[in-house]
Amino acid sequence: QVQLVESGGGLVQPGGSLRLSCVASGSLFMTYAMGWYRQVPGKQRELVAGITSGGMTNYADSAKGRFTISRDNAKNTVYLQMDSLKPEDTAVYSCNAGGGYSATSVFTGPYWGQGTQVTVSS
Question: How far apart are CA 78 and CA 6, in angstroms?
Fold first, then answer.
């Protein structure tokens, strides 16, 4: 079992920045690929960024060039640095563990955090 706790969300103006953190419990964090997803009411949850256990990254087109996913295995933490934020980035951002984010295999894992709200004002 993996427990994930996100933090770092909040209210920010367009063009601003936030860094989200996801801290995982358990001893197998270094073996899991990790992803950040976002969802707004009435919309499908979408992948924002993923990172493999080896540190290779995969980004949604909407995030590439603005967002950066990284991980610190010693701290059992994955980060999402979000720059140049836009109003359309407003969503609940959730951390996911156990998926896949290689060039040939992209899928969501079974473990989710509770989510953190990101609101970008107009």
Answer: 9
Helix (H, G, I), strand (E, B), or coil: what is residue 99? coil
The b-or-e profile of 77-116 (16+ CB within 10 A means b, else e) is bbbbebeebeeebbbbbbbbbbbebeeeeeebbebbbebb
Check: CB of residue 67 under 8 Å from CB of residue 61: no
Amino acid identity of 88? E
Q: Is the dihedral of CA 75, 35, 93, 49 positive or negative?
A: positive
User: Residues 62-115: pLDDT tens digits?
Assistant: 999 999 999 999 999 999 999 999 999 999 999 999 999 988 889 999 999 999
Q: What local confidence, expressed as pLDDT, does residue 19 receive?
A: 98
* Opening angle at CA 115, ends 117 and 37, nearest 5: 95
- Any idea how long the chain is? 122
Q: Across the strands, what pairs with 39? A: 92
User: Which tokens is 37 given?
Assistant: 């997803």
Cβ–Cβ < 8 Å for 58, 70: no
